[in-house]
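Note to self: the last two entries modelled the partners one at a time, which told us nothing about the interface. This time every component goes in together.
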Amino acid sequence: MKVSGEKEQFASVEKSSGKKRKPVVSKNLVIVESGAKAKTIEKILGPSFRVESCYGHIKDLPRKKLGVDIEHNFEPTYQIIPGRGKILKKLRALSEKMDEIYLASDLDREGEAISWHLSQELKHPKKVRIVFNQVTRDALKKAIENPGEIDLNKVDAQQGRRVLDRLVGYKISPLLWKKVKRGLSAGRVQSVAVRLICEREEEIEKFSSREYWTISAKFSPSKRAASLEAKLYSIQGKKAQIPREGQAHEHAQRIGKQAFQVAGWEEKEKARWPSPPFTTSTLQQAAGYRLGFSTARTMRLAQGLYEGRDIGGKERVGLITYMRTDSIRVAKEAQLEARNFLKKEFSTQFIPQRTPIYKNRKSSQDAHEAIRPTRISRTPALLKDHLSKDHLKLYDLIWKRFLASQMEKALMKISTVDIEGGEYVFKAQATKIRFPGFTAILKEKADKESVLPSLKVGIKLALEEITSRQEFTQPPSRYTEASLVKTLEEKGIGRPSTYAPTISTIRQRQYIILNRGVLIPTSLARLVNELLVENLPTILDTEFSARMEEGLDTVESGKRKWNDVVEEFYQHFEKELKVAESAMRDIKKEGLKTSKTMCERCGGTMILKFGRWGEFLACSNYPDCKNTMPVMKKTGAECLSPGCKGEIIERVSNKGKVFFGCSRFPECKFISAQEPIPRKCPHCTSPYLIRFKDGFKCPACRKLIKDEIVTKRKIGKIPYKIIKKSNETKIG
DNA sequence: CAGTGAGCGAGCTTCCGCTTGACTT
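The predicted structure of the combined assembly is written out below.
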């Protein structure tokens, strides 16, 4: 049944594409990893080649078992991945009719393993391996004319990677089920990601905010001229540091009595070069910061652009190159196209003399090009009616970044003025664009121009206003998806295809919650992280992945056997694991003594435990006493619901998002997304405010409350402004 | 951006890295 169904579908594919092709029967089969790539290549190669996709890995270790024989050289047991049998069947049937099979999976480590697996499963006498790292006519021609064999050292490096990851994941996870909670997980990538997030949180908690003051002033060369604003830079030749309010006022008093003049005037030229085109990681970062997209959303949209849209009635056409890449390399053909486009649409001024060459980082496997539009002439404006809003936004980002990367550098003029009066030096700086270069495309906010009046050294300046402002040092910021991906990539942890899935895994495991795009570790994560760092420090080391890569490199170059590299690692790991099995605290029994709450039923103490629905308080006398209580994180704010005497509690939805609800739920259903700050609204009766921009907003009357108190005084005849924060808004 | 939540302690869970639709609301 199944087979005949497949054949029918198969025939229809041949029929539909057969019309466009000459009626020649294909004699050669080319197998690639991606479906969209297969279509593109088939068009280029013509009728004597049939191009099919295997859709990634076809064989892997079994999911329910370890699948690694530790006693016998870590011999892995592979199986056809459940659900992939159909594809394999199709490839087998097809290969029987062919003269030659070209294994054309990606040229990286995983790609080599895929070819090896395909080679094992397709019993065909003539199989060759071909590689290319860009989908262009020339590259394909060269690849087909120079077939080779599967690089078994590369395959072995992949096996080493696979086995090591399996051992780490499938040995540590069960330990966590036993000690903490069922369903938990640990792994080389996810556990380090969680560690980074946890350690950032610790830094934030340890951080104590310090108050300091800054002083600025307005000066003017004459009564008619526009004034310029400058910041106090130094006092008595030392960099200005003003920790207290009183000192700020003292300095302001003295500043008010000085006669000021221009002590220095400098103009410097500075060049700015464009960024290289996108990789997966930088695309995810830019889309996160600029468009507010999650990594998952970015990848979904990029996949859509890669697969193509129906534009202008004709067939589907891929709009961007492959979106999972660690390379910034660009095909020569595309660079030439960009230059021609610039010549037509801009002027030659914007074309750099030398075509830029962007160099990859060492760790890049360079199996694909950078992410770029397939045709630079397909401008975002032209595609406007064919793409969804989000697809267009992402395409616009990719298109501009690529074109900019092929453009001339920008030239800026930076002018600096030093204004001196007695022991005080003020500084002002302005940037002017002399030649926009690539910025003509990007129009970044950072490129805002500012102007300083032309001044000569020695000119006297009148002091028009002084301002003192209270500031607080800020704690390090929490990770966003984008900044986490950046850090992971820098440390060589994870690959382009896994950044987004890793984030959703640690979220599913309830290790992190998402609050307005910011990643916050749960107490479960902090507990698990503490247990793992303490007991299995080798794996939790942020440098572990980098060391693994070094080991795999020696396998790839043929210097070492993969089993030996795994063995060396495992001997050490096994020891740590053995100790951990007995030494690791048993949280399932002990719980965490974080609260001092008494049990209402038996007088025992309530301890924190981790259940299926998250954290809860349980009686320490379990199983004799089965009393439980929800964990309440108080915000200190009263419930806004009329007549309700409840309090507002911080909670987490089962999708992992923070929200704020009434402690009297389910009787009171009050709910809010924003954290309530327990401060009465000065305009109405609301018992709390919510944060908004730099200040607050009232949830009841919607009025804005600025978190600034401005006091106006005078120093002699000069206006003096004092700006203070009204309350503690140190943490944003 | 998005627009939210309920009664738990067992259930057979878990890794990373290649690929995509198939499910729901």
